[in-house]
């Protein structure tokens, strides 16, 4: 989670609602190399949002090389 009081990050990642001054509910999953592995945007289906994020996290963990 990131605090973004003035919307700088929201504008950089294109997650601001046009004309509303609000930020959309978007989750970015970034791997250890800094590569975005998933982008999830579900404003009203919060359960679906959570499940998709968790599915992708599990897949990332399964596919990660051993340490």
Please describe what this structure looks like.
- The protein is flat.
- It has a two-stranded antiparallel ribbon with strand order 1-2.
- It has one domain.
- The protein has helices at 8-12, 46-63; strands at residues 26-30, 36-41.
- The model has no long low-confidence stretch (mean pLDDT 85).
- It contains two helices and two strands.
- Helix content is 34%, strand content 16%.
- It is α+β, with helices and mostly antiparallel strands and 67 residues long.
SSE string, helix = H, strand = E? HEEH
General shape: flat
Structural class: alpha+beta
The helical percent reads 25-40%
In the residues, how many domains can be counted? 1
- Strand residues, percent: 15-25%
Low-pLDDT stretches are none
Radius of gyration computed on alpha carbons: 14 Å
End-to-end C-alpha gap = 26 Å
Mean pLDDT score, rounded? 85
In spatial order, strands of the major sheet run 1-2
Number of helices: 2
Number of strands: 2
Major sheet? 2 strands, antiparallel
Quick description:
With 67 residues, the protein is of the alpha+beta class. It is built from 2 helices and 2 strands; from the N terminus they run αββα.
Give me the secondary-structure topology.
Elements: H1 8-12, E1 26-30, E2 36-41, H2 46-63
Antiparallel strand pairs: 1-2
